[in-house]
Write a structure and sequence with these properties.
This protein has helices at 4-9, 16-36, 44-62, 64-67, 73-93, 96-103, 106-117, 120-125, 128-143, 147-153, 155-174, 189-198, 200-212, 231-286. By secondary structure, the protein is mainly alpha-helical. The protein has one domain (11-286). Helix 2 packs across helix 6 and helix 3 runs antiparallel to helix 5 (73-93). The longest helix is centred in the last third of the chain and has 56 residues, at 231-286. The protein is globular. The termini are far apart.
Length: 287
């Protein structure tokens, strides 16, 4: 008889729609990198981040976590946490907007890229207050309304609505806070760190409510399962994952933002030093 672990790992999903989209995202990015490298050098770390993000999406959308996500709450929670807390920020660090700008022709930049970047819609979608409220609203709203259980009971809703919304909200949240993507107005580094830190509040609240709930919150998970934790223990584990694990992950992204802040200050310091040196040199030549 196979063990529970073997049974869990042995079940995968083969979804042509997801595979096609992930492959297409990789091919388009790779094409753009190759185009930029003809006349410049694209950041290899950004490329690594992009494809790492796609790999994580493939793992949680096609692997055992996805296959069991409607049986075990912890699997469903793990899928969402990986998408929101790891894959989405890695895609942001891939700097797709900057890459699109660099790979575009001069005419395309003037006609499409620059006008889009300067549009009111993009200004709103990159405003850190808006993106924080959006991400927190998605996180709390989906877990504490009837939507979550409804999506679990309707595959198409989970597939075409819930999963894309989590990914999009997380991508927009991290977009103005980390990485080197072009955007209309980049928030100050202090605001970026503050936004990342404050996101721990709705995450902690969501996790704590799920963990301490005295009843099963989502009837879709209150059903017989072939192995593993019983429903209440499964729910508590899911709450603990949201409550504790994301604190560690968020702290890591705060460190990334802090490193970017320090690097920016160092560049500014070097620029000031060069300007001072040039002024001194000009003064020496004048004498």
């Amino acid at each position: 008889m196979r063990s529970s672990l073997q049974e869990f790992l042995g079940l995968w999903t083969f979804d042509l729609f997801i595979i096609t989209n992930l492959v297409l995202a990789g091919l388009v990015y790779g094409w753009a990198v190759r185009r930029v490298n003809r006349h410049d050098r694209w950041n290899a770390l950004a490329t690594t981040c992009w494809f790492s993000g796609l790999a994580l999406l493939a793992l949680v959308y096609l692997g055992p976590v996805s296959a069991w996500s409607h049986t075990f709450f912890w699997a469903h929670m793990t899928q969402h946490l990986v998408v929101m807390m790891a894959a989405a920020p890695l895609l942001v660090l891939g700097a797709p907007v900057t890459l699109a700008f660099a790979a575009s022709s001069g005419a395309a930049r003037r006609r499409w890229v620059v006008p889009i970047l300067r549009s009111r819609a993009v200004r709103l979608l990159t405003d850190p207050l808006f993106t924080w409220l959006l991400f927190a609203g998605v996180l709390i709203g989906m877990h504490f309304t009837g939507f979550y259980n409804w999506a679990l009971e309707h595959h198409d809703a989970d597939y075409f609505l819930e999963q894309p919304v989590y990914l999009a909200a997380a991508f927009l949240f991290y977009f103005p806070l980390i990485g080197a993507n072009l955007q209309p107005r980049r928030p100050p580094h202090g605001i970026r760190l503050l936004s990342l830190g404050l996101m721990m509040i709705p995450e902690a609240i969501t996790g704590a409510v799920i963990y301490f709930a005295p009843v099963i919150l989502y009837p879709a998970f209150d059903s017989p399962r072939p192995f593993g934790l019983e429903p209440m223990s499964d729910q508590q584990l899911s709450g603990a994952l949201m409550w504790a694990l994301v604190m560690v992950v968020d702290s890591a992204w705060m460190m990334v933002a802090a490193v970017e802040w320090f690097a920016s200050e160092e560049r500014a310091g070097r620029r000031i030093d060069r300007e001072i040196a040039e002024e001194r040199a000009q003064g020496t030549m004048a004498r």
